[in-house]
Amino acid sequence: MEADILITDTLLLPDPGQDTFIPSGCVAICGATITYAGPMENYNGPRAKQTIDGRGLLTMPGLINLHGHAPMTLFRGLADDLELTDWLENHIFPAEAKHVNTEMAYWCSTLAAAEMILSGTTTTADGYFFETEVARAFADAGLRAVAAQGIIDFPAPGVEAPEKNIAAAAAFLDRWQGKNPLIRPALFSHSPYSCSNETLLKAKQLARERGVKLFIHVAETKHEISMIREPLGPTPVQHLHGLGILDADTICVHCVWTDARDMDILSGQGSPVVICPQSNLKLASGMANLPLMLEKGVRVGLGTDGCASNNGLDMFREMDICAKIQKLKTLDPVATPANKVLDLATTKGALISGFPGHSATLAPGKPADLIMLDLVQPHLTPLYTADLLVYAASGADVRTVIINGRIILEQGRLLSINIDETLEQVRTMACAVLQ
Amino acid sequence: MEADILITDTLLLPDPGQDTFIPSGCVAICGATITYAGPMENYNGPRAKQTIDGRGLLTMPGLINLHGHAPMTLFRGLADDLELTDWLENHIFPAEAKHVNTEMAYWCSTLAAAEMILSGTTTTADGYFFETEVARAFADAGLRAVAAQGIIDFPAPGVEAPEKNIAAAAAFLDRWQGKNPLIRPALFSHSPYSCSNETLLKAKQLARERGVKLFIHVAETKHEISMIREPLGPTPVQHLHGLGILDADTICVHCVWTDARDMDILSGQGSPVVICPQSNLKLASGMANLPLMLEKGVRVGLGTDGCASNNGLDMFREMDICAKIQKLKTLDPVATPANKVLDLATTKGALISGFPGHSATLAPGKPADLIMLDLVQPHLTPLYTADLLVYAASGADVRTVIINGRIILEQGRLLSINIDETLEQVRTMACAVLQ
Predict the structure, then answer these.
(1) Contact criterion met (CB < 8 Å) for A388 and B77
(2) Distance between CA atoms of B13 and B342, rounded to whole angstroms?
(3) 3-class state of residue A264 by DSSP
(4) Taking a C-beta distance cutoff of 8 angstroms, is the pair B338, B318 a contact?
(5) I need a labelling partner for A189 at 20 to 30 A (CA). Which of A39, A346, B23, B350 fits?
(6) A321 to each of A73, B278, B390, how far by Cα in Å?
(7) Domain boundaries, chain B
(8) Where in A91-143 does DSSP place strands (E)?
(9) Are residues B282 and A317, on separate chains, in Cβ contact within 8 Å?
């Protein structure tokens, strides 16, 4: 039997959480699966239909971006450095009301997919409205994705009547469950303050019936705490726990304003947390206490958030800032070392994403999701340890991306996306936004 | 008379601190100087020897990186996430003692120059030992630089006997003053805790006699405060002020641990401050209070610091983190807006660097230091305001760099540096470091 793809003579980092390089490594791929990953000299497998020369390149698992709102690429940089209420009410909500439609959702998600693939993300989790268009864009792009249909108790794009939000979400699951191995549909109930208890319970019930993940923004801002918490009343995490909503398939996004007791609950329930350091900084929401979360045994992943608040989808930059800012609160340089963050953005993230067998490691039997970075560059020289990937690399170093055994990016060229058409479509929509 | 270079049909950002784009702009360069920068349709000047097609590209002034230790690229990522004393005493100092020599200083500074040019820096300020090799590397690379010879009361690379540190610095000035329009020599007395008062006074006297800048690390860590400050005694800034050292030509680097009174002194003396947000975060030194500095009228510039502590020299990334982290302390999203940071990294920085007429704006009569970024990329689409340069762009977007009228980087290709040889030299040295 022939292999489909053989990567030769590459610097191999099979498990980024472990800082162990294989200097002259080789990866063999058959179909969607890795059949070998190890030293070149030990490879005894078959020749391949296609060989990729890995000299000068680092080969590692693709990154896992666990939170985004892909269509919001249209609003990238539309309104920066504003007070949150001003930002939302005077800029983002009006722009969404006017400009979000199926066509916008498809093209702007295609742009997001292109940006993620170009910067080394191979799996993403997304939550928005018109999510079927988002899922379609990701499917066309060949990106592995958990796509979650938004649920909110306000009129929303595509769901004008809030009382139909659960039915719309169910229809979305009908459309996507079991249809594409790379797309797993899910639900995204916006937040505890924008969804009634009844809506939250119905959303979780639907998620449980269908065996899908439920995403929810939790404890993002200090203001949210005051909205939910009466004096001595529950925190947002306690509130959700009280409703019986927290379990291993409920993914709590942000959790900036969580205390030790909240973390004990999240850890006890096995509910994953996705932190979005750049978005939280830029919107002045604050900074999640990552060291305490990890100490408490909370499952943590990393996300960029949408382009209206970040304003980019480069997970390398997200890792860098994540590792650096955690040293600020305690003035402890040992806090949140780079390899811990690399682990969140790969293995830990992959486990949270919930694709069977997916652990963002390069090993036989694993899905063939990998990226190759150009090491022959000044800012990546010298290379002593994998920390360099966090503190010096950027998404722009990525040259080749393989997802589920398919080459999606080849020497910097997107094979699955018509990028000229995508850029043109989004530019035209942006002109309309400015008018 | 012919122009030398004409950039046509470009998106022009003549003054990054002001968010005003010229959609179809044009820049004309004669010799080292800009002769026109404005709308294409208003250009009535001569044809040019060389025309650069600016379509799809943003043309803006080059960035000003006001603090670095160029040879330390060799130690990039050698020892990350360690406690400061452990980092310095067990890793950096021994590595410096063993590996810093003239050859190392030249090649590793060439690597730094390449990294800076590739990421859009056109002016840098550097302080290290064997600084004549650093200056030589910058001169060969065509980079505009203030190069400052290190002064410290310990045996240092190239200055084994500390009592000769001032004489060595004077010899360095002799070698470089008036020799190259792009290289301005200066002095770098390491810090108030590593230089005696006598050394500091002699260094400042020498700087005054020669009319050069004096750089000094000030108030970088909390520990430094305790070293200098007796109970109720002076802060590092007060200490230097008491010595009569602070004036408009003394540039204080870091200033993380400065209070309102310190800032009043710095502002009153006109002493510029250079902040290095990423280095300060990564080494867990803390975060300078930039909003208060600006409110107090302190002149502030931005720097990356050396590669042992950052670990890269990309000023776009530095700007991004600078703008984001300042919103953390006050939870105020309006704090330190992007255009303010862009202004620090261009105009404010250029004025501090002290090259005559240099203000990092594109206008007739100004030195022709400019960069061109590729806008036809997903992460830079759409482009609503110049904030995108801070929150989404990266050094990797830079395609063309002109310094003093000379094309140094052309469509991603370094014209002034043999990059293959440079990478090879540094890789060989890095192998020796690992042994």
Answers:
(1) yes
(2) 12
(3) helix
(4) no
(5) A346
(6) 21, 9, 14
(7) 3-61+363-413, 63-353
(8) 121-128
(9) no
CATH superfamily entry for domain A3-62+357-414: Urease, subunit C, domain 1 (2.30.40.10)
- For residue A58, give the 3-state DSSP assignment: strand
Chain A touched by B423 (CB under 8 Å):
yes
Superfamily of domain A63-353: Metal-dependent hydrolases (3.20.20.140)
Interchain contact B324–A (C-beta under 8 A): yes
- Across the range B332-342, mean pLDDT stands at 93
| Pairwise CB contact (< 8 Å): A284 & B311 | no
Percentage of chain B exceeding pLDDT 70: 99
CB pair distance less than 8 Å for A378 and B115 = yes
Which residues of B fall within a CB distance of 8 Å from A107? none
A119 touches chain B (CB under 8 A): yes
The answer to whether A328 contacts chain B (CB < 8 Å) is: yes
Chain A: give the shortest CA distance to residue B74, in Å.
7
Q: Over the stretch B129-148, which tens digit does the pLDDT of each residue have?
A: 999 999 999 999 999 999 99
Structure confidence at residue A72 as a pLDDT band (50, 70, 90): very high
Of A81, A321, A379, the CB nearest to B333: A81
Picking from B109, B189, B184, B205, the residue whose alpha carbon sits closest to that of residue B156 is B189
Tokens of A230: 């009466």
- Fold of domain B3-61+363-413: Urease, subunit C; domain 1 (2.30.40)
Percent of chain B with pLDDT over 90: 90
Question: Which of A123, A118, A137 is closest to A70 using CA atoms?
Answer: A137
Q: What is the pLDDT of residues B283-322, one digit of tens each?
A: 999 999 999 999 999 999 999 999 999 999 999 999 999 9
pTM of the model: 0.97
The number of C-beta contacts closer than 8 angstroms across A and B is: 216
Nearest to B313 among A81, A379, A382 (CB): A379
